[in-house]
Amino acid sequence: xxxxxxxxxxxxxxxxxxQALEDMGYYCIDNLPGILIPHFAQQILAQSDFGLDxxxxxxxxxxxxxxxxxxxxxxxxxxxxxxxxxxFLEAEESALIKRYSETRRRHPLTGPNTPLIExxxxxxxxxxxxxxxxxxRIDTSNTTPQELRSLIRDFAGGELSSAPTLLFESFGYxxxxxxxxxxxxxxxxxxxxxxxxxxxxxxGLDSEVARFLENHDEVRRMIDDVRGFIEDWLPYFxxxxxxxxxxxxGCTGGQHRSVYxxxxxxxxxxxxxxxxxxxxxxxx
Length: 284
Known about the structure:
The protein is α/β, with parallel strands linked by helices. It folds into 2 domains: 2-158, 3-Layer(aba) Sandwich (Rossmann fold), CATH 3.40.50; 165-280, no CATH class. It is 43% helix and 19% strand. The strands form 2 sheets. It has a 5-stranded parallel β-sheet with strand order 2-3-1-4-5, with helices on both faces. The protein has a 4-stranded parallel β-sheet with strand order 7-8-6-9, with helices on both faces. It is globular.
């Protein structure tokens, strides 16, 4: 039985996440009252003839009772023998404000005396227990609906394996640091292909850029150091039962150096018994 709890900030993409899970065959319930979640889990575990082996429920800020006692409620699920995972979606305030202004929808925590920005910040506080309990956090600030569906499918599909999933994500600092990163490595100190006119329009996926970077000792040293750090600490994350680890590699624009380094690391760890994913945020 796979049981996912989907939560996150209003406007961050919870509906899209549930749709992606439904497409994968999950039985999904939107905003099930928190008090019913342990009862629902108990019923589907006790009655195998339901035919449900993959379920997902969403929890938002209106579920105050559940949010006030998240550790106890999650412990109750564990006591029942339910192997649950929590997905938390978030986005930068500016992205959420833009989405609400475009859709003209009303934020659930706004009112005559509560402006949108205050509602967003209040919601962050209310949902913080689930944020800290999350198995996987996804920053949707710069993510298209198609990309989010792909990230959800990758996560849900990775649950079929006992090995942890490593996501190597390249990004550009001028566009902001990913909120969902577990580790962030800055490679802006490396030689920049951008200043070579022949390489400027290419990316770290192109062989010409790869040859340029491979000719510099500091690039190889950086990759070796990051690789060594991950190898040294990965066993400790395994003992914590961490099933998903996001490693963000950043350069100025997210086009050359970070992409190349992320690809090299993904290739190395992909040869091991691990689930390895790559995402190049600025290239998409």
